């Protein structure tokens, strides 16, 4: 049994805090309880073993809280608890790195099981020296998996831009590997021996953005008890990766533009400019052009950042990479938690390859990790899939169609998911989709997924 591990409970109601705290105390955990408003920087700085966030404080606030936590203490597992059955929130939480998502009323056994599992999985993971426990230790291109044409082009372009000092804008949905590419660019650049510093704008509270980037002097605002170096200075001679640049407020955008043009920063409260030599790589999952049209992103900053644009495709557009990713993640995860690599049933493998993965590579990795950690035998099957996936997430049940998706992609996704649900049976799938088997076969052939369906059908009973 774990002894006196500390759990931080962020929950806005006093009775809710008391119930959770009593319950965890009974199970020998030490708990600290706060409401979101009470949460202070020193609590984030202190060492806690797990964070429990109540989503009923408002989905967006809780998700922001999660992002902030993952940015500052990526190694600390966060469990989200919610009475909402909004699948989008659950998906968003998992995409942003929640270790688990529990629906209220939470069965006490389930809560304890989740707490113990999340802590165990973190303890067994590699030491938290990197910004993410999921990242390989050598973070060059050699650790980025992808044999699809789209990824090969990205690698080629990224290697080329690594040699320059140009600003790079990496675009792509959350979890597609933007940060991984940014770091690989840095590791392959002449700045490789200098710092690679990251900052996620979506995770920094609005009033702290400028202090985070440019630093502040002691006493320059309430709470500034010490002078603090900003991320630009921390990245001096190296690379600064600014994630979710689209979340910058207009006022800060003007200041950022000035730094990019003059290479000088002025910490808050100081009247002295400081020279910084920093290469900026920015990333966003938003359509910046649209934000520019709406007046929410400065056009001049957009052009200044967009000198070189690398567009990472979502995982559903490069299914051919999934089998490789699965193989690589299974090896990594099993090595990290020192487990023998379990076998994957043919149905499960087929499911993983055909799933649309709205949370992209991150979600695929989290799914595999959760299955491996919780597995009781040496073989993983469809029954081992996390609940959220088994309940149809990623199948677009609510039909939320991502912007810019082509009809053909939708059709392909619908067909692949239906085949997966019907264990590769084309007759049942065609019937359920309201098309003839012949049409279904023609489409599969045209998309080059005939083999997968065949091999699945052959192995379907294994
Ligand atoms: N091609 C890949 N090969 C191996 N691992 C990958 C690949 N792409 C992403 N990952 C892994 O997926 C996770 C998410 O990647 P990353 O943080 O780089 O995505 P992102 O696009 O920056 O996400 P966000 O926009 O949410 O910050 C990480 O654990 C990363 O190591």
Automatic annotation (TrEMBL):
The modification 4-aspartylphosphate is found at residue 54. It comes from the Bacteria. Keywords: ATP-binding, Nucleotide-binding, Phosphoprotein, Transcription, Transcription regulation. The gene is zraR_9. This is Transcriptional regulatory protein ZraR. It holds the Pfam family HTH_8. InterPro entries: AAA+_ATPase, AAA_lid_NorR, CheY-like_superfamily, Homeodomain-like_sf, HTH_Fis, P-loop_NTPase, Sig_transdc_resp-reg_receiver, Sigma_54_int. PROSITE patterns: RESPONSE_REGULATORY (PS50110), SIGMA54_INTERACT_1 (PS00675), SIGMA54_INTERACT_3 (PS00688), SIGMA54_INTERACT_4 (PS50045). Residues 6-119 form the Response regulatory domain. Residues 144-373 form the Sigma-54 factor interaction domain.
């Amino acid at each position: 049994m774990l002894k006196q591990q500390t759990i931080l409970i962020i929950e806005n109601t006093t009775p809710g805090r008391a119930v959770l705290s009593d319950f965890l105390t009974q199970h020998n955990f030490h708990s600290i309880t706060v409401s979101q408003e009470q949460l202070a920087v020193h609590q984030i700085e202190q060492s806690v073993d797990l964070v429990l966030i109540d989503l009923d404080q408002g989905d967006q606030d809780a998700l922001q809280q999660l992002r902030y936590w993952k940015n500052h203490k990526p190694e600390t597992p966060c469990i989200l608890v919610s009475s909402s059955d909004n699948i989008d929130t659950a998906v968003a939480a998992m995409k942003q790195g929640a270790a688990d998502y529990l629906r209220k009323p939470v069965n006490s056994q389930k809560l304890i099981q989740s707490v113990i599992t999340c802590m165990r999985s973190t303890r067994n993971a590699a030491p938290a020296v990197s910004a993410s426990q999921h990242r390989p230790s050598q973070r060059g291109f050699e650790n980025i998996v992808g044999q699809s044409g789209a990824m090969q082009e990205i690698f080629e372009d990224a290697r080329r831009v690594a040699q320059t000092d140009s600003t790079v804008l990496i675009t792509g949905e959350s979890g597609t590997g933007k940060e991984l590419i940014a770091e690989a660019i840095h590791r392959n650049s002449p700045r490789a021996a200098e710092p690679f510093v990251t900052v996620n704008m979506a995770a920094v509270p609005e009033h702290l953005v400028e202090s985070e980037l440019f630093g502040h002097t002691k006493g320059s605002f309430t709470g500034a008890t010490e002078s603090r170096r900003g991320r630009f200075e921390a990245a001096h001679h190296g690379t600064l990766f600014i994630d979710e640049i689209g979340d910058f407020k207009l006022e800060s955008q003007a200041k950022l533009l000035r730094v990019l043009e003059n290479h000088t920063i002025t910490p808050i409260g100081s009247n002295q400019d400081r020279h910084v030599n920093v290469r900026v790589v920015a990333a966003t999952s938003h359509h910046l052009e649209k934000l520019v049209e709406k007046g929410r992103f400065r056009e001049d900053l957009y052009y200044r950042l967009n000198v070189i644009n690398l567009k990472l495709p979502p995982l559903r557009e490069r299914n051919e990479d999934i089998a490789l990713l699965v193989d690589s993640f299974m090896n990594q995860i099993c090595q990290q938690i020192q487990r023998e690599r379990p076998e994957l049933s043919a149905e499960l493998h087929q499911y993983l390859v055909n799933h649309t993965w709205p949370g992209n590579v991150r979600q695929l990795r989290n799914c595999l990790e959760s299955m491996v950690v919780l597995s009781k035998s040496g073989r993983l099957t469809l029954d081992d899939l996390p609940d959220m996936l088994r309940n149809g997430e990623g199948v677009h049940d609510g039909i939320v169609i991502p912007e810019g998706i082509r009809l053909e992609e939708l059709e392909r996704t619908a067909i692949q998911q239906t085949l997966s649900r019907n264990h590769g049976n084309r007759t049942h799938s065609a019937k359920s989709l309201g098309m003839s088997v012949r049409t279904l076969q023609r489409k599969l052939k045209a998309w080059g997924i005939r083999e997968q369906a065949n091999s699945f059908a052959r192995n379907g009973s294994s």
